[in-house]
């Protein structure tokens, strides 16, 4: 009788949970960026979410993106400079949906895995949600510096998985405007 052996390498927890976040992101219908988020307590998955329009409302693939332009003052080489930033405001972000559909008690001391670095608004919400750690893969340069400062001030561990490679079925080209 033949003995079966499995030589597949077991994934570490960060890779395992980020893979799930990326697969969740495939539910998004946003043409600019698919984002998935998970709430994890220890090794237990407590919730998933992705970015999209509110339930029952046409999404970006049906009604087009709803772009809002904002000017933000940034310090560049010691000089204040107005920088134009564009954001789609039709969708609820994955992190916001995650907070809407999970309980506060489950979030206390938990970790959020998210495919993309949270924007400023999501970071503020996460900072007030009871979580202790955020793990992300793709950077979001529009808000990165101020988000990192916020997380440091709140004592929230903020880690980017630089060597991570998403599952092939979940890859997409991201629009960074």
Molecular structure report:
The chain has helices at 13-25, 60-63, 94-100, 104-107, 120-127, 144-154, and strands spanning 36-41, 44-50, 67-76, 79-88, 111-116, 133-138, 157-160. With 177 residues, the chain is an alpha/beta fold. It has a domain at 13-52 and 93-162: Cytidine Deaminase, domain 2 (3-Layer(aba) Sandwich), CATH 3.40.140.10. Strands 2-1-5-6-7 form a five-stranded mixed sheet, sandwiched between helices. The protein has a two-stranded antiparallel ribbon with strand order 3-4. The longest helix has 13 residues, at 13-25. 31% of the residues are buried. The mean pLDDT is 90. InterPro entries: APOBEC/CMP_deaminase_Zn-bd (IPR016192), CMP_dCMP_dom (IPR002125), Cytidine_deaminase-like (IPR016193), dCMP_deaminase (IPR016473), dCMP_deaminase-rel (IPR015517), Deoxycytidylate_deaminase_dom (IPR035105). Belongs to the cytidine and deoxycytidylate deaminase family. This is dCMP deaminase family protein.
Query: Share of helix among residues?
Result: 25-40%
Put simply, the count of helices is 6
CATH domain topology of one domain: Cytidine Deaminase, domain 2
Number of strands: 7
CATH architecture of one domain: 3-Layer(aba) Sandwich
- What is the class of one domain in the CATH system? Alpha Beta
- Gap from first CA to last CA: 60 Å
GO molecular function: dCMP deaminase activity; zinc ion binding
Keywords: Hydrolase, Metal-binding, Zinc
Protein name: dCMP deaminase family protein
InterPro entries: APOBEC/CMP_deaminase_Zn-bd, CMP_dCMP_dom, Cytidine_deaminase-like, dCMP_deaminase, dCMP_deaminase-rel, Deoxycytidylate_deaminase_dom
């Amino acid at each position: 009788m033949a003995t079966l052996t499995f030589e597949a390498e077991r994934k570490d927890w960060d890779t395992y949970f980020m893979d799930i976040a990326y697969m969740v992101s495939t539910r998004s219908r946003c043409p600019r960026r698919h984002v998935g988020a998970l709430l994890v307590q220890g090794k237990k998955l407590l919730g998933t979410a992705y970015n999209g329009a509110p339930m029952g409302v046409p999404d970006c693939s049906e009604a087009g993106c709803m772009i809002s332009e904002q000017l933000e003052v940034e310090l560049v080489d010691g000089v204040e400079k107005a920088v134009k930033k564009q954001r789609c405001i039709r969708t609820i972000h994955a992190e916001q949906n995650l907070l809407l559909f999970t309980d506060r008690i489950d979030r206390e001391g938990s970790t959020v895995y998210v495919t993309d670095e949270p924007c400023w608004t999501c970071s503020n919400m996460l900072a007030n949600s009871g979580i202790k750690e955020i793990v992300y893969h793709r950077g979001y340069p529009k808000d990165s510096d101020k988000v990192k400062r916020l997380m440091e001030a709140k004592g929230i561990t903020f880690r980017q998985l630089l060597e991570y490679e998403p599952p092939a079925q979940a890859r997409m080209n991201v629009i960074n405007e």
